[in-house]
Design brief:
466 residues, OB fold (Dihydrolipoamide Acetyltransferase, E2P), D-Maltodextrin-Binding Protein, domain 2, globular, biotin, receptor
Length: 466
């Protein structure tokens, strides 16, 4: 019987060995836990089988990509490149006119694959599950959705080809730019690209405990704002929202939590007063039904100066009339904010055919999952935000073109973003070649200066001014 290697996706210290040599294990079951960046990150088995040997022990230090166990499987496991061939017939709708059904290009999906997403119960996780179920029902593909509490943990499996899509938020942008937690030697700028994303009736803002007495954002001064360790996207987003009232991190009390779910639990348990998320996220619903209750202080678009402050901290935000979510009535829209979330994200290095197949499957089978979870309907191909802050993958572009949802202007904008990723990659390579400092704070400071200079030389905006 064939053997495969099980490797760790991150460097760190082995803090627990879950599986046993000689024992049986299922696909996706944890083999070991690796302590990295103040988190315990599981290393799952990519297939079912018998554990031949465990090659590490507790307290061992492991490198990214290191083999930690050997697995004996019943049959060859081709990972993410075993494909099931399906001929799909799509009725394409253009500008409101139905065209006769045509034979779509053959869709190829892995027989077994993984997505990563936010914690269980969140809107991002629930939407990913709905899409995965569609792929199981339509194509027979077994899809496992891996919950992860922060952006680093969401991207690690994608980076090492253990997942095919990461359902991200603005962390995709910060990773592209190589800032915050991605401005470290182990990461740097990541060439991330979009497939499909969601903008729907929900909004993205800071939910506030109703019993805190906050009615407008100016009332949040001195309150406790939840942060997630290792998740710069969420933290920066929260700061962008409170900037509407001219508040900064110095004007609130920051309370750190290990994960997104833990942060919202902290608000419910009165350890914090506000947490960033989608209005339809499961934890917001929990807060609504708790004794504390929930409110969403508004951000009216008419206050131009306030919105200038928001965009200075989070350029990816836009005003949005929100009609769904915790404590929100569809007949009484709230003036909040939004950006595409979740974003089904891939690496530029992933094969065009692979990403085309995934994107095409989501487009032509939209009706199978559009009602699977709140926000799912925002994946409608006609609702895509095609000129955002990270580019679309060529495989996704191919599928969008076939759906009649791609223009010459979209192509030019996309190519400019891909060029930006090239500038950032070259700057990172040059910086690391030039004897960059070893101390983390000095390394990050030096990188941000090198990054700024490279973008200025290319006549591209920095996006993260001092």
């Amino acid at each position: 019987m064939p053997q495969i290697k099980i490797v760790t996706e991150v460097a760190g210290r082995i803090c627990a060995v879950v599986a046993s040599a000689g024992g049986s294990i299922g696909s996706g079951d944890d083999v070991v836990l690796v302590e990295a960046m103040k988190m315990e990150i599981p290393v799952p088995s990519p297939a079912a089988g018998k554990v031949v040997s465990i090659l590490v022990s507790v307290d061992d230090v492991v490198a990214e990509g290191q083999t930690i166990a050997l697995l004996e499987t019943e049959s060859n496991w081709g990972g993410f490149f075993m494909t099931r061939h399906i001929n799909a017939v799509a009725a394409i709708v253009l500008a409101g006119t139905t065209i006769s059904p045509v034979l779509a290009q053959e869709v190829k999906l892995p027989t077994s694959m993984a997505f990563t997403a936010y914690d269980t119960g969140t809107s991002g996780f629930n939407i990913a599950v709905g899409v995965g179920k569609m792929m199981k029902d339509k194509y027979g593909s077994d899809v496992r959705v891996l919950p992860a509490g922060n952006d680093v943990a969401r991207l690690a499996p994608l980076r090492t080809n253990r997942a095919v899509l990461a359902w991200m938020g603005t962390g995709s942008y910060f990773a592209q730019e190589g800032v915050f937690e991605f401005g470290v030697k182990e990461w740097g700028p990541q060439a991330l690209q979009m497939t499909l994303s969601t903008v729907d009736c929900n909004g993205l803002s800071v939910g506030v405990a109703k019993d805190s007495g906050v009615k407008e954002w100016k009332d949040f001064r001195g309150k406790r704002l939840g942060f997630v360790v290792g998740s710069p996207a969420l933290n920066q987003n929260a700061l962008a929202i409170i900037a509407y009232a001219g508040l900064t991190q110095k004007d609130v009390k920051i309370v750190e939590f290990a994960s997104y779910g833990a942060m919202w639990k902290g608000v419910i348990n009165n350890d914090a007063d506000g947490a960033f998320g989608s209005t339809v996220t499961g934890p917001a619903k929990e807060l609504e039904s708790s004794p504390r209750g929930i409110v969403w202080p508004e951000l009216p678009a008419g206050d131009k100066a306030a919105w200038d402050r928001v965009k200075k901290v989070g350029a990816f935000f836009n005003p949005h009339d929100v009609t769904c979510g915790a404590a929100i009535e569809s007949s009484k829209p709230l003036k909040l904010a939004t950006y595409p979330y979740p974003i089904a994200t891939a690496y530029a290095t992933q094969p065009v055919d692979q990403i085309y197949g995934l994107t095409k499957a989501m487009i032509v089978n939209y009706d199978m999952y559009k009602d699977a979870a709140p926000g799912s309907s925002g994946l409608d191909v006609k609702k895509q935000t095609k000129q955002w802050v990270i580019p679309y993958h060529p495989g996704a572009v191919k599928a969008l073109k076939e759906a009649g949802q791609w223009t010459d202007a979209d192509e030019k904008y996309n190519n400019d973003l891909i060029k930006r990723q090239g500038v950032l990659a070259d700057a990172w390579k040059a910086y690391n070649t030039a004897s960059a400092p070893g101390e983390p704070a000095a390394f990050l400071s030096g990188w941000m200066a090198a990054r700024k200079a490279a973008l200025a030389k290319a006549n591209m905006p920095n996006g993260f001014e001092d």
